[in-house]
Design a protein that fits this description.
Layout: H1 20-49, E1 55-64, E2 69-78, E3 84-90, E4 112-120, E5 127-136, E6 141-149
Antiparallel strand pairs: 1-2, 2-4, 3-5, 5-6
Length: 153
């Protein structure tokens, strides 16, 4: 009959896995890295999709004399992400209608472009509408309207 050892100690198994603290730190690091990658891709795509050609009229001024001579000054600011390549100005009134040529063009994002010229038939105190058709590098257009009242300098 074989001998049976009853008081023999059971063998102990040594754990070779990670400690719970190290495992938690690794999981946090992996999560943060994944969040950085996903947010980078998202904001890059959102920036491309968010490109918009926009402009605003920064300033319009009409200085006139009692004799009817007027001087227009118009400043347009590029508030979008696409350069401005052209601006066509129209004053619907029959008089006080200047020929405005904007420079510098192209106007890059964040910059301004301006035009000034004289006109005849401007009546002091009268309000004149001005319509600007802004053309951008991507061939899109934006129509801006405002008005100016003829005043003394």
């Amino acid at each position: 009959m074989p001998k049976v050892f009853r008081n023999m100690a059971r063998p102990r198994y040594v754990s070779v896995g990670l400690s719970p603290l190290v495992a938690v730190i690794l999981l946090i690091a992996i999560t943060v890295a994944a969040a950085v990658v996903v947010s980078g891709v998202f904001f890059n795509l959102a920036g491309i999709a968010g490109r918009r050609p926009t402009a605003i009229i920064d300033q319009v001024r009409l200085v006139a004399t009692p004799a009817g001579a007027g001087t227009w000054a118009v400043v347009v600011k590029n508030t979008g992400d696409v350069p401005i390549t052209g601006i066509n100005a129209t004053v619907p009134a029959a008089t006080c209608n200047p020929s405005l040529t904007f420079s510098p063009l192209p106007a890059n994002p964040g910059s301004t472009t301006s035009a000034s010229n004289s006109a005849t038939g401007c009546t002091l105190g009268s309000t004149y509408a001005i319509i600007l058709t802004v053309t951008f590098q991507d061939n899109s257009t934006q129509v801006l309207t405002t008005q100016a009242t003829a005043a003394l300098a």
